Structure formats: structure tokens, C-alpha cells
Amino acid sequence: MDLSFLPSFPLPLSYPLLFGVLLVAGMLGGEMARAARLPRIIGYVVVGFVVAPLTQAMGLEPLIERARILVDLALGLALFDLGRRMDLQWMKRDWTLAAAGLAEALLAFAAVLWCLLALGFSAVNASIVASICMATSPVVVMLVVQDDKAEGQVTERVLNLVALNSLLASILTTILLASAHLESRMAVETALLHPAYLFMGSVLLGGAIAACARFVARAVEKTADLHFTLIAGMVVGAVGLSVILRLSVILTLLAFGLFTRNDARKYDVLDVSLAPASRLLYIVLFVITGASLPPSALLTGAAAGMALAGARLAGKLAGAFAFSLLGGLRARQAAGLALGLAPVSTLALMLYYGVARQFPGFADEVEAAFLSMVIVMEVLGPIATQWGLRLAGETVPEPAATGHAARADLAGDA
Amino acid sequence: MPLDFKRSNPLTMGVELELMVLNTHNHDLVRGAPDLLARLEKVRMQGEVKPEITESMIEVNTSVNETYDGLLAELVDVRDAIVVAAGRLNVEVAGGGAHPFHKWTERRIFPTERFQRVSALYGYLAKQFTVFGQHIHIGVESGDDAIYLTHHLAPLIPHFIALSASSPFSQGEDTSFETSRLHAVSAFPLSGQLPPVNTWAEFNRYFDEMRGYGIVESMKDFYWDIRPKPEYGTIEIRVCDTPLTVDLAAQLAAYAQTLAAELLRNRRHEPVQPMYRVYGYNRFQASRFGFEGELVDPFRTRHLRIREDILETLERLAPFAAELGTAVPLMALAALAAREANDSRWLRECHQETGSLPDVVRLQAQRWRTDPAPREAAQAGARAMQ
Fold this sequence. Notes:
The complex is a heterodimer.
Chain A: H1 15-35, H2 40-57, H3 63-66, H4 68-85, H5 88-93, H6 95-118, H7 123-132, H8 138-147, H9 153-183, H10 188-219, H11 224-244, H12 249-261, H13 275-291, H14 297-326, H15 331-340, H16 346-358, H17 360-391, H18 403-413
Helix pairs in contact in A: 1-2, 1-13, 2-13, 4-9, 4-11, 4-12, 4-13, 6-7, 6-9, 6-14, 7-9, 8-9, 8-17, 9-10, 9-15, 10-11, 10-12, 11-12, 14-15, 14-17, 15-17, 16-17
Chain B: E1 13-23, H1 33-40, E2 48-51, E3 57-61, H2 68-89, E4 91-94, H3 113-122, H4 124-128, E5 133-139, H5 143-153, H6 157-164, E6 169-170, E7 173-174, H7 181-186, E8 191-192, H8 200-212, E9 223-224, E10 226-229, E11 234-241, H9 246-265, H10 273-289, E12 294-297, E13 302-305, H11 306-324, H12 327-339, H13 343-354, H14 357-370, H15 375-385
Parallel strand pairs in B: 8-9
Antiparallel strand pairs in B: 1-3, 1-4, 1-5, 2-3, 5-11, 6-7, 10-11, 12-13
Helix pairs in contact in B: 1-2, 2-9, 5-9, 6-10, 9-11, 9-12, 11-12, 13-14
């Protein structure tokens, strides 16, 4: 009997299956978190923690590397969306906004660097980790904003500052690659050329794709449907090109978004919302991120990780709070804004893996501490952002009264 | 207790303008009013800027002005102050009677006690009331004059509708109306017109009766097209869409002022009932067709295009305009009517050109910022000319 029509064992990995299972599981986790009055993201990540042993058993570890393309797509989409919200004109009109962005990023860098040096880490590795720690997770902030329907000054400012610190962290990490190259005794030319290629290449590619998007946009009718399709296609294409050219997906897509918004011809491409579609990718992204974080890191790195998280948060809070007050925000708003910048997630992980892949020595030294910090912040970050936006009064208030109660009130008035 | 009518100088005027607060990325309405108002509190200016029912609206109230020139200068000053504050917050402000594509479900009620109560009572009507109107106040000496003017301005309400119309789009669609905003007002149970009373004393009896039923507490509860405003000593015309420029807002006020002057000098004695029998029809014609609408004149049983009626009226007002210093704005309105170039037409042309409603809103915000040129720029230009 010929049984060749049956699948052969062991069953090969199927990406559609993986995507589907992680999506539905993540969604359910998110709703459970919601029921517990926590941000949905925490649910997605916890599903990842639970899934991790399963993927290990299936030999899919490390999941974040196996499903790299999904991660790149989700992160690329988020960074494009964020770049599109960053308004350089605004920063020109209100210098305190740019100043708050620089201050919170640099103070976070300094605080983390000081902390790691005090804990006895090497200067080069400590400075790379410090530069990664400047970044706030774009996806966490955007999803909390969506879920709580946050709208207003603080929300807009947080999104702009997240774009700015993602940009600064990506650039500084790329530059610091040079010193890591040098320390590992690579030729000087390579040490300088690699970061230069990553930076210039990514920005140029982002700019070229933005120009291309505008060109196509002018050729079609200006409806939300068509422009959504255009943007989705361009974002996926940009991620693909960036991967093929071995550039930085993060920088390319951030540049694409920035050029789309801050160009003289910026009105060619409609600013359509990507929200319902992008959530599919983001849910899977967080499940994968959760699954790729080894809880074992906490065994050796918990203390250092907590110190790292504390130093980073202190730097961010001080910088953002001080300059936001100076910019005319009320104290509650300034505090809310500063808290909003807390999350750390996939962007930082991808920057970390980008360095670790090339320098195993880097990973050996900092992995436990860094991953511990990320694990802690995966849970605390979304809560901090949610509190922050609530403190600023920009989320939709909980429904206070039902229709009946309202009518009773009015009857009382009359 | 009867409503006291506060005496004020006749023919003084003031304007209220409701304005939209927009984000700068897709030009949808945004929850920007609280921060904008907090900033404007620190700016010294005549008049004031106040919250409105939802957090995407602000309302400008001018001080009492004697002349068109004074009113326009004040409006330009307030406009410039708002533009500077909005720039720092990265929001935009614009005129126009309705936002072309916002979703009313996304609006949030401004957290003051009165607005929360209105919202609890009227449900979704409150959020749908995110529309933007211009109210014109004209000072009168007595309650009796207020009643007289309120009645005899009523036949001219279609003029104000056609001249100010700036809300052709609603919820993402072209409504085919020149103004879609007035429908949001008509939905309220206390919209409509003044009842056929002839004196302030008669009105007081009507008001007491309504208060006795528990239907109203103050004049604020009547959402009429024109109403007496006893606490200010004015009559208030409430049908105008907020124009796209402060220029047109001041011109409309000048028109109301000149009309009132003429009506007070050449007193009319026609009965009011026949005017109100055709009122709804005429109002619809103006909302739907603008200048091309057809008016019914109940006393001469004839039909007349709104455009012709406006032009005839403006001609009749010329001597009064010369006295009041409103000849220039009235000429501008005549030109506007003759070309049928109201703001709704401008908005539709923008839509045709750009093909997208977000672009229309962007252009209307730009027009509000720059037309007429900001005071400082205008002064710098004048210096350069010398």
C-alpha cells in the first residue's frame, strides 16, 4: 500500500499554523488581562511565557529568530506608524518638546551607564546596553493608546518622544558598534564602514521608499482604502528590501515614516489608520517576544536587571518631567508623560540581538542582566503607560452611570 | 419672577464663534480644547475663549463693539492669539459649520456640570451637536424692541443661512445641502422660533408658563434661530454656520447691525403669523439650495430667489450703511451673493481639486489662519510698502 499521500513525520513547521495559533492564543490572553483590569499587552506576553516550553519541546527555539520575519514586519509597521506621528515642525515651534526628548534619552543613557559600570561591566558593553535602554517600546505605547482611546497633548507628546528616542537609540547603538568592532580587533575600515552603511543605507532606503509611495499615491484616487493598501504594501516591501540589503529594519521604517510626514509634499499620501490590521501582527509579536524571554535569566540577573530598570526609569522620569513642566504642562500631565515612556520591549530586544549576533562576548556578559530588565519591564511598562495617560486625564473615563441613573439624576434636579 | 431685560446701547454688537480643534496629521477633530483654553488663559486680550459641549470645540466671545472696524480688529487679534497657542500644542483651529468626516461617537463631552447634564438628558444628540455656529448679538434698548426685532428679522433668516453656509459635508459625505449643521439644531425639542407674542410683558407670561411646566429654567434652554437675550440686552441670531474667515464673521455682524437699524427706524406693522407660516419652507430652501433657494413672501404672495432678495435688501440698506460705517462689509457681501461664492462652494471646490476630505479640512484651517493676514504680518507689509 502506498501511503506517500500522508504527511511525513516529524511534521515540518508551518508558518500559517504558527501565526494562527499564536494570534488566537494571544487574543484570549489579552482578554483575560483586560478582565483583570490590566493592559491587554500583558496578556499577550504572558501567553508567550506559557508557550515558550512548548516551542522548546517542538525544537522551535529561539522562536524570535525562527519567526524573525513576523517580528520584522510587526516592528517595521509600528516604526513606520510612529515615524509618521513625529512632527519636526512642532519641535521647532516648541523647543521644550525636543529638549524633553533629548534630556530623557541622555539621562537614561547616563544613569544606565553609571549603574552598569558600578556593577563592574566593561565600558564598551555597558555603553551599548545604555544606548539600547534609551528606547521606549513603540508598540506597547501605541497599543495602550489605542486600547484606552487616549487623546490629547500628553498622548501626542509621548508618541513624538518615543519616535525620537527610538531614533536616537538606533543611531547611537549603530555608532557604538564601531567601538565594539574595534575592541574585537577588526580592521578599522570595517569598524567604521559597517555602522556607516547601516545608518546611511537605511535612511536613504527609507527616503527612497517614501518618494516612491508619494509617486504611486499621486497616480491613484485619494481614498482611504487605496492608500491603506499602498501603505501596507510599501511597509512590507520596505521590510523585505531592508532585510535583503542587510540594513536596519528599525531605521529604514522609521525613516520611511518620518519622510512621509515631514516632507514638503507630505499631503500626497493620506494619513490612514492602520489600526485594526496592525493589531494582528502586534499580538503575534508580543507572544513571540514573551516566548523568547528565558525566565532563567532572572536566576542570575534579577538584581542587576532591577537596578538597570530603576536607573533607566529614573533618568527618563527626571528628563521628561523637568522639560515638560518648562514647556507649560501641568504637573500631572508632565508626570503622566514621563511614565508613558517606561515600556521596554521588542525594539530593545532587536537592537540587542543585532549586536549579540556579531559579538558573542557581548551577550555572555550582559545577557542575564539585560533580559531580566526586559522581562520586568514587559509587565511594568504597559501598566506605567496606562497610569500615565490616565493621570493626564486623556483616556476615556470609565462609564459612570447607566441611562436609568442619569434620568433619575435629572428628575431630582427638576 | 419676571425676566428683566437689561437695557443696552442700541445697535452695539458682539459675536460668538464656535471653532473646531483639529489634529495636524489627519485633520480629524481632536480632544484639544482643555489644553488650548489653559494656554489662552494666560494671554491678555479683549473678549474671551470658552469651552463648548465637546472637547474638540472652543467658543470665541468678543466684547461689545460699536463698529464693524472695531469688531474685525478684535476678531483678528483673538484669531492670532489662538493660532499661536495652537501652534505650540500642535493642533489646528478652523472655521466651518461642521467637521466633514469626524465620527460623532468619538467625541467627548467637556467635563463641566452643565454640559454633563445636557449630555445625560439628550443622549447622542449632545455628541452630534458637535457643530459650529456663529451667533450675532445686536444691542437693543428694551424688551419690546427685542421682541419686535426678533419677529421682523425672521423673514431674513434665509439670507444669513445662505451667506454663511459652510457645512456641505457631514460624516464623510456630501449632504447636497449648503448647510447640514442646522439639522443638528432642529433635533432638539426646544428649537424653533419665538411664539407670536408682541411685547416683553407677553413674552414674560409665556416664559413663566413654560417654567411652570418645568420645561425650561432659563433662556439658554430655548434653541431658537433668533432669540431675545435679556441678560445681555440683545437679540441673538443663531442660524449662521461659523464662516471660514473672521472677515466674513464680521461682515455678517455688520449686516445684522444695519438691518436692525433700518427695521428700528422704518417700523413694520405686518402681522407675524403669516411670516411664520412660510418660515420653515424658506429656511429649508436656504439650507438646501443656498442662494438659488426660493423664498415665499406671504404678503405679496410671490416667489423670489434668495440671491435677488439679498441684493435688493443690501441696496435698500445703503443709506443706513453709510451712517453706520458698514458700507464696505455690505459691498463685500453683495459681491459674495452676486457670485454665489459662499464658503460651502469654496469647500466643495477644494474637495473637487484635492479629492480628499482631510485635505479640505487642512485647507480650511490654513484659510482660517491666514485670511485676513495676521495683524503682525499685515503691519510688517505696510511698513515695507512705505
